[in-house]
Amino acid sequence: MSTLNGKWSFKSLIQQQELVIFLLIIIMSIAINYINAGFLTPANFKPMSRGIAIEGFIVIGMTFLLISGVFDISVGSVMAFSGFVFTSLAANDVNVYLAIVAALATGVVIGIVNGLIVTKIKVNPFITTLATMTIVRGLVLALSQGNPIRVSRPDFIQFSATEVFGIPAVFIFFFLIFICADYMLRKIRYLRQFYFIGGNENSATLTGINVDKTRIFLFVVIAVLTSLSGVLSSSRLEASVPNAFVGIELKILVACVLGGCSLNGGSGSILGSILGLVFLFLLDNGLVMLGVDIYWFNGVLGVFLVGVVLLNSYSNLIKERKLKRVRNSLSQQ
């Protein structure tokens, strides 16, 4: 990180969002543990790690989408519908692995539909996924009549309940996917082109990148990862709740933007987005321990979203000014 007159520069600091979020996580963890000594304990870690893993899969998919310049607000409805498909089949004694495949297949179909509408019909991603969110939520409510479906089969519950050396297996699985996704986004050429697409779609097309095909692929990726989250959540709850996960898309978007993603595309990282999600989980825990009404949480999320967007705008302005100074100095040589 650069310095200014021997001191840390605020301008350089705000451009290191991953580091800033990591430091905030450390500070918040210490503060919450001071308020409640039971916070940094295995008993609290297990449920939190399961929650982070389940929502973390969606964050990975959303990060890919945001980097490419689009986003998906239908994730809550897709999560509920996939959980409904998985739970309904399991409740009717269908093999649990076939039920998982069926739930993930619904994600593939929804992702393809979203991708085709955005890329081929050229409908705005917000309008497209808003329509998908409404249709899919209406479908799951109609099919279930708004009633939860409960399943107590051991093989149904094992996906979220299994532990390895006291660590939830679902968290270990998520951690491995997270590490692989972050590494590939940084090193694999095909994934690096997501930044190019999000930064300048026209230039990406002129260099031979199939932007439409790439975005359809990314809509499928996030839909499948969201379906996986729906499956794991239903296993954790031992039920499918048709009206669950309403508003989760806001939390996912805030986590990604907190971690450095731009709503305009072209920037962000998997690591930053996951750190943003961890920060929000800690914030939620902290508010509960302070006795703050849980219904205030979405309001706090909104404030954070506005604040981080303003910070990102300021950071981009700094970068643009630096580039302008460099161009001016080169033109004068």
Task: Give structural notes.
This protein has 333 residues and is mainly alpha-helical. It has one domain (51-284). 74% of the residues lie in helices and 4% in strands. The strands form three sheets. It has a two-stranded antiparallel sheet. The protein has a two-stranded antiparallel ribbon with strand order 3-6. The two termini are 28 Å apart.
Short description:
Helix content is 74%, strand content 4%. It has helices at 10-13, 17-35, 42-67, 75-91, 96-119, 125-144, 154-161, 169-187, 189-199, 201-206, 211-237, 248-258, 270-289, 297-331, and strands at residues 3-4, 7-8, 149-150, 163-164, 167-168, 239-240. The longest helix is centred in the C-terminal third of the chain and has 35 residues, at 297-331.
Oligomerization? single chain
β-strand percent reads under 5%
Which structural category do the helix and sheet elements fall into?
mainly alpha
Into which percent range does the helicity of residues fall? over 70%
Low-confidence stretches: 1-14
Helix and strand element order: EEHHHHHHEHEEHHHHEHHH
Major β-sheet profile:
2 strands, antiparallel
How far the N terminus sits from the C terminus, by CA atoms, comes to 28 Å
Rg value: 21 Å
> How many E-type strands?
6
Number of helices: 14
Number of domains: 1
User: What is the overall shape?
Assistant: globular
Task: Provide key terms for this protein.
two-stranded antiparallel ribbon; mainly alpha; 14 helices; 6 strands; 333 residues
Question: What is the fold's blueprint, element by element?
Answer:
Elements: E1 3-4, E2 7-8, H1 10-13, H2 17-35, H3 42-67, H4 75-91, H5 96-119, H6 125-144, E3 149-150, H7 154-161, E4 163-164, E5 167-168, H8 169-187, H9 189-199, H10 201-206, H11 211-237, E6 239-240, H12 248-258, H13 270-289, H14 297-331
Antiparallel strand pairs: 1-2, 3-6, 4-5
